[in-house]
Amino acid sequence: xxxxxxxxxxxxxxxxxxxxxxxxxxxxxxxxxxxxxxxxxxxxxxxxxxxxxxxxxxxxxxxxxxxxxxxxxxxxxxxxxxxxxxxxxxxxxxxxxxxxxxxxxxxxxxxxxxxxxxxxxxxxxxxxxxxxxxxxxxxxxxxxxxxxxxxxxxxxxxxxxxxxxxxxxxxxxxxxxxxxxxxxxxxxxxxxxxxxxxxxxxxxxxxxxxxxxxxx
Length: 216
Ligand code: AP5
Ligand code: ZN
What we know:
Blueprint: E1 3-6, H1 13-24, E2 27-30, H2 31-40, H3 44-55, H4 61-74, E3 80-83, H5 89-101, E4 108-113, H6 116-125, E5 126-129, E6 135-137, E7 157-158, H7 165-179, H8 181-188, E8 192-196, H9 201-215
Parallel strand pairs: 1-3, 1-4, 2-3, 4-8
Antiparallel strand pairs: 5-6, 5-7
Helix pairs in contact: 2-3, 4-5
The structure holds BIS(adenosine)-5'-pentaphosphate and zinc ion.
Zinc ion binds next to loops.
């Protein structure tokens, strides 16, 4: 099963993707995580995308499609969760073509709907474990022990460079201008399943599970 998680910055795509990996044995492909890894490892591409990401703009289609192509060609998995990809119509076309060349297709597109005001709260309270990638929040999901990851015990908890008010404004504009047209695109293809992302994390997970069990 191949699933796309669609939604604005802070909607909960990464949070839900991690649960789906655990529950369904699918592989998460997050272009945001791939780009951040490229930055940390200091590759040429990482250097090129750093400023763009920090400003909250979208990286070129060519770069992110290349990243996804490489993963699809090298990772053996029963199915993928696409988290933060596709984000433009050319990326959606490229994904259809890549999957169809493998004899696969998109089974469901989950659109996580969240109000803008809630997105600001979620982004400004988010922190992540630098070691295992677990995502936390100051109020809605703090670590049990202050300063230590619940999953791996690491004290490397950090905030993202693009989680600031200026960058978030740009990320939201980019989402509405370039990514939201995908909602109509997948609706027309009868693949779109909106879920109420304003609910608690477990409720959102339950709604997604109901969709996927219906689509299976
Ligand atoms: P990316 O890393 O994909 O960031 P994003 O889309 O802005 O999404 P986020 O990771 O910020 O949010 P999320 O929806 O995963 O929410 P999360 O689960 O963390 O992209 C970063 C940048 O990379 C882009 O700006 C762009 O420059 C570039 N890029 C990436 N992909 C690209 C592409 N395809 N094309 C071009 N450029 C690309 O949750 C947020 C917080 O809320 C957490 O603290 C969490 O604990 C909390 N939370 C989650 N769910 C709930 C809930 N139900 N109730 C309460 N709190 C909740
Ligand atoms: Zn951890």
